[in-house]
Specification:
The chain is an alpha/beta fold and about 400 residues long. It has 15 helices and 12 strands. Helix 4 packs parallel to helix 12 and helix 5 packs parallel to helix 6. The N and C termini lie far apart (about 50 Å). The relative contact order is 0.18.
Length: about 400
């Protein structure tokens, strides 16, 4: 077996199950799960209808799909990137369909990391655990950049010494951040682009929450957008990852894309031809339609805004709460051990949230996820409101 498998940490949701073992949620309440970032809004009706067309589906299922994807899908993606970020990508060389961002973020690390013992993969801390797994299986050492509360949960990249940058082969970015909800500015992305050129590493930007935000005047900035604004039209060393899971409420479709540096994607495509991960033809058809439609995305964003408008004032009666720049999470500082908090909340209120320490690692002397919980407002709005009220009532009794 690959010895690096022994370095992998248990996945956060396995740890939640272990934490809840032997604990019974209060039967006086209906259980509300706010731990997993799985969208529960309805998928677009037109996508369901497309996937229900039996004759077309029969033809699609009788076809081996192409790893590079149908040109119609890649053109739809390129058009969306241009509309959303003002960046012009070549659908022939700068776009690849993938089976969701999770698959791609992991496999990309395997394709691009050198395997050298001194190699570093830089990660925000706390983080989406796939980044760490990709680094470890690629024989790289994760370098954790803390997103501390006293720095507004922003990573301080400029404090990292040159000796670290010299060993960096890839930096995973997440904006809007999971779990913090904070976004990286165009200035920060520009600075990182300069560092990448100076030290020759790749930027892998996970932007799967980019279409869920509260302020229409400030949509999250994308890496390709920042690169284009600096005149880097070839997007050298830049690769972005997007998905239909959050944007379009289609997590079960397992569909997304990577886009950016043509030279890097050419090598990644070679890797993918061996990996056997081509999207089925019916998935590609539905995906193209989803990327070309924006109405359902606007409606989805409005639904999350309604939830935040409802639950934030409730939570503020007992907690310091700041709404996210993007995404559908609250990253709450609870002031006590997060695992004890989450276990007690489940036992007494039948609400499941994710302990923040499960999403972080101790770097320096602290785990920046400690004493925090991630609350995913993915349940139906009435359930979210009920859970928020139940939580503050419980906090008021403590």
């Amino acid at each position: 077996m690959n010895p690096n498998l022994d370095k992998l940490h248990r996945y956060p949701f396995e740890r939640i199950a272990a934490m809840k073992h032997g604990v019974v949620g209060n039967p006086a309440f209906e259980h509300v799960s706010l731990s997993i970032g799985e969208p529960k809004h309805q998928p677009p009706a037109f996508i369901v209808e497309m996937l229900s067309e039996s004759e077309q589906l029969r033809a699609d299922l009788a076809t081996y799909p192409a790893t590079r994807g149908d040109i119609g899908l890649r053109e739809a993606i390129a058009q969306w990137i241009a509309r959303r970020f003002g960046a012009v990508v070549d659908p022939e060389t700068q776009v690849l369909p993938v089976a969701g961002t999770r698959e791609a973020l992991f496999s990309f690390g395997q394709a691009v990391l050198s395997g050298k013992s001194e190699a570093l993969a830089m990660l925000p801390n706390p983080f989406y655990q796939i980044y760490e797994g990709a680094a470890l299986l690629g024989n790289a050492r994760p370098y954790y950049v803390n997103c501390d509360r006293d720095n507004h949960y922003q990573p301080d990249y400029e404090a990292i010494p040159d000796a670290v940058w010299e060993r960096c082969e890839i930096i995973y970015l997440c904006s809007p951040g999971n779990p913090t909800g904070r976004t990286l500015s165009a200035e920060t992305l520009g600075w990182l682009l300069t560092q990448a050129e100076r030290f020759d590493f790749l930027l892998a930007a996970d932007e799967c929450y980019s279409e869920i935000y509260l302020n229409d005047a400030e949509p999250p900035v994308g890496l390709l957008q920042a690169a284009g604004q600096l005149g880097r039209a070839d997007f050298q060393r830049c690769v972005v990852f997007h998905s239909l899971s959050k944007r379009s409420n289609l997590p079960g479709l397992r569909s997304g894309f990577v886009a950016g540096d043509a030279a890097v994607l050419g090598e990644y495509f070679k890797y993918r031809t061996y990996q056997g991960c081509a999207l089925p033809a019916h998935t590609q058809r539905a995906s193209a339609a989803a990327w070309l439609d924006e109405d359902h995305v606007v409606a989805n964003r409005a639904s999350y805004r309604k939830k935040f408008a409802a639950v934030t004032p409730i939570l503020r009666t007992q907690l310091e709460v700041e709404d996210p720049d993007g995404g559908f999470y609250h990253w709450l500082h609870v002031g006590v051990d997060d695992q004890t908090f989450a276990r007690s909340l489940y036992a007494e209120c039948n609400i499941t949230v994710l302990p923040g320490s499960f999403l972080g690692r101790t770097a320096g002397t602290v785990n920046p996820g400690a004493n925090h919980v991630r609350v995913a407002w993915v349940a139906p709005e009435p359930d979210c409101i009920a859970a928020a009220q139940r939580m503050v009532d419980w906090l008021g009794r403590r």
